Amino acid sequence: MATAGAVEGGQIIPVQVGRIAGRRQVVGPDNTFRKGSPPTLEPFTVSIDPLEPVAKFTVPDEQFVLREGEWSDGSTYNFSCCHLSGT
Fold this sequence. Notes:
Blueprint: E1 5-7, E2 10-12, E3 21-30, E4 39-48, E5 54-59, E6 62-67
Antiparallel strand pairs: 1-2, 3-4, 4-5, 5-6
């Protein structure tokens, strides 16, 4: 099991799995366009197989399955820091 904390290119954050599926959020860079510069957040879902030690991850524009203890090759996220509207 990986140790929680900062790693090259990101951060490891342990989560408790108590259900077969759930939505989580990837924490991105601070959004300096918003008051207080809160971190940007992008959603993802995870579905745990009840019979096999695998989970399916659905992130924006991508889905992949990982076995227990396996690492992904990485996903690229485009965090939305500013929503523009025009007339």
